[in-house]
Design a protein that fits this description.
By secondary structure, this protein is an alpha+beta fold. The chain is 15% helix and 35% strand. The chain has two helices and six strands.
């Protein structure tokens, strides 16, 4: 019943260095699952994907550095003869909506 295949997360609060935390999301990931994330250098935020290890997910190398109104992680799921592209986006409340719509439009065009 609670057999989750994948779970998108926002506000992971992970930092690349994790110097300020004795635990990482990896330490909390259940057996049989993997976690892919994009950490932030600042306090808060971060996006990620928790999924069953049996699913063939790979983090894509898309650079979202040019976008300032949202955070994102780009994942590809390879299953049978199909590749599913999954994009997880988080727009912090402090970001400007008009800038977000413009940047999101640019993202969709590429």
């Amino acid at each position: 019943e609670n057999d989750i295949d994948m779970l998108a997360t926002t506000e992971t609060w992970q930092r690349p260095s994790n110097l300020d935390s004795p635990l990482t999301v990896g330490d909390l990931t259940p057996t049989g699952y993997q976690f892919h994330d994009v950490a932030r250098d600042t306090r808060g935020s971060g996006v990620g994907l928790l999924h069953k290890s049996s699913l063939n997910f790979h983090k894509d190398s898309v650079d979202f550095g040019n976008f300032h109104s949202f955070e994102a992680v780009d994942m590809k799921l390879h299953w049978r003869s199909t590749t599913m592209h999954i994009l997880i986006i988080y727009r912090p409340p402090s970001s400007n909506c008009m800038v977000f719509f413009r940047e999101f439009g640019i993202l969709l065009e590429h």
